[in-house]
Specification:
This protein is an alpha/beta fold. It is about 35% helix and about 10% strand. It has helices spanning about 1-15, 30-45, 55-65, 80-90, 130-135; strands spanning about 25-30, 50-55, 75.
C-alpha cells in the first residue's frame, strides 16, 4: 500500500502537459533501497525509465542551487520540507499543482504549488536513561534543551 501511495505521489509530480519522456532524471535523499523500489514501480507503470542520484539533503539543495541556470534533473524527490522551502526562496523550483493535490493536507504542500509532500517522517529524541541517571541529568525534552552545555559531546543525530 505504501508503495502505491509513493508511486501515485511521483506520478502526481509529473507535469500533465509535458511531452512524453523516455527517461526521468531525479535527485533524491531517499536511500537506494527505498528509491529503487519506488522508481522501478514507476517505470513499470509508465514505461518511463528513471535515472536517479542520491545525496544528503544539504548537498542536494546546494547542487540544485548551483545548477539553477542549467538544471540537470527533472524532479527532486523525497527531500525534507526545509529543503523545499529553501529551494522555493532560491527560485529553483517551478510551480506545479498535481491533480488530486487538494486531497493532501495543507501542511504537506506549498500553498503556491512549489512542492508537494510524499512522505512524513517523525523526528524523535532518544536517550540512554542509565547514562542520564548515572550523571544526574534530565532527559532533553526540546531542541532548546539540547543547547545546554551538559549535553556537549554527548549527542548523536541519525
Amino acid at each position: 500500500m505504501i508503495l502505491r501511495i509513493l508511486l501515485l505521489a511521483l506520478l502526481l509530480l509529473l507535469p500533465r502537459s509535458a511531452p512524453a519522456a523516455e527517461t526521468l532524471n531525479v535527485y533524491t535523499i531517499w536511500s537506494e533501497r527505498y528509491a529503487t523500489v519506488v522508481f522501478d514501480e514507476f517505470t513499470r507503470e509508465t514505461g518511463i525509465a528513471v535515472n536517479f542520484l542520491r545525496f544528503p539533503s544539504g548537498e542536494v539543495l546546494a547542487r540544485l542551487i548551483a545548477e539553477k541556470e542549467n538544471p540537470q534533473v527533472d524532479v527532486f524527490f523525497g527531500g525534507i520540507a526545509d529543503a523545499f522551502v529553501a529551494g522555493k526562496k532560491e527560485g529553483i523550483f517551478e510551480q506545479y499543482v498535481p491533480g488530486g493535490a487538494e486531497t493532501i493536507p495543507a501542511a504537506f504542500r506549498d500553498p503556491e504549488g512549489y512542492w508537494t509532500g510524499v512522505a512524513m517522517n517523525p523526528i524523535c529524541f532518544m536517550f540512554n536513561r542509565p547514562f542520564l541517571e548515572k550523571h544526574a541529568l534530565e532527559a532533553p525534552a526540546s531542541w532548546q534543551d539540547l543547547l545546554n552545555p551538559v549535553y556537549r559531546n554527548g549527542l548523536i543525530m541519525a
